Amino acid sequence: MRERQGVHVKRFLFAFLTVVIGILVVGGSVVVLHARQAEPAVLEAKVVGTASTPLGQLPHATVELSIYPQSSSTVPGPTTGVNAAISNLGWPFYWPSTTIQLPAHSLVTMTVHQYDSSTTVWNAFFASVHGTVDGTASYNGKPQTRIEPNQVAHTFTIHQYAESTQQGFFVSVPMLAVAANAKNEANGYPKPQDITFSFVTGDPGEYVWNCEDPCGSGYVQFGGGMSQRGWMSGTVTVV
Amino acid sequence: MSIDNPPTVEVDEPEEPTNRPRPDHELRAWLSRGYVRKILALTIVFVLVIVPIAWLVIHFMNLSGAPASAIMVEIERTMFVFTLVSSPLMAITLAILVYSLVGWGRVSGDEPPMQESPAIRTNGRAVVIWIAATSILAGFLVVWGLIELATITAYANGSTPPNQQPHAARAIDINVTGQQWLWTFQYPDQGNIQASTLVVPVNVPLYFNVTSKDVVHDFWVVELGVKIDANPGAITNTGVTPDKLGTFNIRCAELCGLHHAYMETQIKVVTQDQFDAWVRDMGGKRTV
Amino acid sequence: MSATAVVHETRDVPQPRQHGKPGGFLRHTSIVTGLVSGIVLAVVTYAIGSHFFVPWGTQNADFTQVGLNALIAATYFAWVIGFMAGIGALAGPIRWALGHDLTHDDAEYMAGKGQGKWRYWKYTTDHKVVGIQYLVMSMVLLGFGGFLAMLIRTELGATWTEVFDPNFYNSIIGTHGIVMIIALIIVVTGPFGNFILPIMIGARDMAFPRLNALSFWLLFAAVPPLASNLLLGGIRDGWTVYQPLGTQAPIGMVGYQVTIIIFAFSTGVASVNLITTSVTMRARGMTWNRVPVFVIGVIASSIMGLVWFPMFQYSQILALSDKVINTSFYNPVHGGSVWLYENLFWLLGHPEVYVVIIPGTAALMELMVVFLRKPLFSYKVAVAGFAGVVAISSIVWVHHMYMTGWAPSSGYPFMLSTELISIPFGFLVLVMLGTLWRGKPWTRLPMMCVYAVIWDKVVGGITGVYLSDVPVDQYMHGSMFVVAHFHYMLMGAGLFAAIGATAYWFPKMTGRMLNERVASTGFWTAFFGFQLTFMSMFVAGLQGMPRRVLQFDNAFNISNWLSTIGAYIIGIGMLIFLYAIITSWRHGTIASSNPWGGKTLEWQTETPVPLENFPVLPVVTGDPYDYGVPDPYGPIPVEDTREPAVTR
Fold first, then answer.
1. CA C89 from centre of chain
2. Is residue C491 assigned to a domain?
3. C-alpha distance from A26 to closest chain C C-alpha (Å)
4. What are phi and psi of C634, to 5 degrees?
5. Do the domain assignments include residue B3?
6. C580 in contact with A, Cβ within 8 Å
7. B25 and B145, same structural domain?
8. Could you read off the pLDDT of C270-299 as tens digits, one per residue?
9. Among A62-66, B122-126, B257-261, C9-13, whose mean pLDDT is lowest?
């Protein structure tokens, strides 16, 4: 009888061990895979004072981004996580990071230096400026509400996370392209277009952004970098 | 028991057809068996358990503000009715299942049981009744479904359900474009204004022309019970009349890539005046 | 039924000339030579291809690596061809081309005679070896799919963040889906259709033993392309791989397409084998009235697979062609149609779910009889049910496409056909309930699985009724409600039935008794976890949660937390069950040849089953359901002057 009990205890122990091993395998995989998929480091907006807006005095923060057509020795492109393996494919990318953090209830001014040439945007909606304080963006100093669809290189489009109770947040600004035959300067890239726009953030929330201009690979050029965090898509966290 | 000693049962010897027990005696005899009564009782219990599920189902569907259209009301009514009409068949299946575990005895142990069960190879009456019952149920579901599909197709095309105020205005055409990973809406009749959230007046029929710029998406206006795939290279149509003010969800229901989970926007059902004001703000005009 | 009294003398059949040692080339081949040969050919193909045809760095303006998809596809096909050549699959055709016939010694070698355990690692034709190989392969695939499910549920349970990148999440849900579908297609027909069915019909092997080995090793070769997709960027699409989204995926997608193309050949070959064996190789006296119902179920499932699997294969061939040689079958920009893909896919996609559920149901019907000691209720209704399901399953596929806008008025006829299929399916439930009626269950694990499966069928069935209605589908399509429904059918009714069949035939296949205490603990833990997981998922779907999303509205948080906890419980239960299988296989009590007291032919032969199954082929004189005592409530039996069915 004792022997049988011993067998039962042994079986229970080994069954328990099997379960423990299973949990460790799953848990370990989650941790490793999560780490391997890290997105670029967070780019925080710099608060530079206050500004007066139609909604009153709000803190004023700035963010500076660049869009490069491909990586080079001076600008290596996203190399964190899975992006390390695909950094040589010549995809365009936002630099220095696609993980953006903005302060809540603030006026945010974004400056984008755009170095890439154009691909015609499919949906003319995205050739117009949406969601900025006065409905315009400033292209090399000149405020405009829209640009020509065939002059769009990329867009910066913020839209809502899946959370419907979050405050709606929609900002979309087309990025003016450089000429197709522009000459490269010393750093390997042509002279950029400078686009500046401002918008007001609301309550804290989590949002995603992506480019809505077909500049990737594959079917209708929405594959490749267009579908990859770190390149042409990322997250915006309002804290 | 064995084949040589059949059990003795008090029954008239069926020598001639006239001595055969009459059918209602047979039914009464069958109903007098203990297990039959218990199973029927269990069936009734299970029906009573299943029926409230019909309400529970509707409750969960309504948690975010549904129903907001006649179509959604029809959908909920169908779920409710289907649950109720299916409950007898479900209940009797579960009753037999449960009774089988407890009511006819159980054998456990390592050796195959010596006791054997009654050798019932078939029961013509049970087969016929079951087939008839399932066919009637299936038939009911089909007929209900066909009529209902025709009804909501009519609602989608703008017809007014009974007990509702007739629509004063013409349908509003909305071009819905799905693309990776946003919905954009265009109102051709209001001066071609474009927006990323849908704003519509209450009690006015909406007619959606849905397409996609890239891969297959699925335009789902959740609380209004409307859904249609957004296919590249084609325009698909659906329609609905919102009859409740509020803000509801539009979600993409077909995996479309990286940000499929974030391809959400909102539909704001507002009064006619608020809608006209919004149209003016967006730079459009009423062209009714 | 047992061996008949008549013994046939074996006469010496004149043998062809023996070329070399018995087995010929197959003496030198095994999984090792297959792997080596497959990997070498793949590497060589990749090297030659990338050197001469796809110089690194060549890109189109839209950044497509020119020819990279073609190169990867060629590499995968080279792997398959190399593996099959290396394991000896080509030995047969080459032998035929050389004009050498198989001798009896060759055939015995190929069936694994005298090779001990090593025969499981070779191209062995013995159906019992192939059955065990399929059993292990199904368990490996289920384990891999289950692992991915744990990752998925972890992501969905961590509602406050993205645990995985959305691309990776999309890939694991797609891979989980296709791995599980493949595993479930083979989980009953593979192990038990191969091992048990030929013995059950009183045959010595299957009709086409070499095709039997071929079907297994093709499946084996098809798995690495699929599994490797996660290392090559993932498929980033659901298991249905809707086009044109699939053409945006990185090179991992090519692995999926190659896998399906090869797997379709494997199932086609297996279906042909099973049908021919069941129709032509039944023992003398086994008329169609006496065929065990499991065989009918396997035939039904094989017919559906044989007819419809090519549709899936064609859909993937066209998709591969779109990816590799730039055709535009599914590319609307250049004249293709997304609806073409959807139709081709669902033409298989629907019959496939019956391919999964029918064999399991038939196996449960088979074992219920033994554990209730009463005949199967209305065998004819069961056969009619299987036939009805096979027939109608071909004309319901559009119910997966109600919301596509393809042909809006097709909703009417397909709603009709979808409701109609519930009638023959109801026949099968009737047979199971009728067999339970007034039966005294022997509450061993195989029998308890029957109760679990019928409950899951009831829930899956009613939710299927909701989904078959077009207006309701207008709310439910693409939501988690659909996911919960098909998990109830495929996992609750399909996988749990396979677990019942495994517990039932374990003593015959492995020669040992399954440790029921541990196995039942595992099974019921998984069953309880299953109810928690998928009932909560129904709620999430009713609330409006779409499927294939990794982040969602806060309103769905509670359902997802409960589902994740339930999923972890399933995982724990399945691990315990796996432990029971492995430990019983290695150290379990040695089983007698008929531990359950079954009357079908497989229980009338020894355990372990000898190479040729029976010392003398049996002659059948009655059906296998001759259990039970006269019904005390029935009419007074007339004296039975027929021959007794059983001669013990």
1. 22
2. no
3. 7
4. -85, 180
5. no
6. yes
7. yes
8. 999 999 999 999 999 999 999 999 999 999
9. C9-13
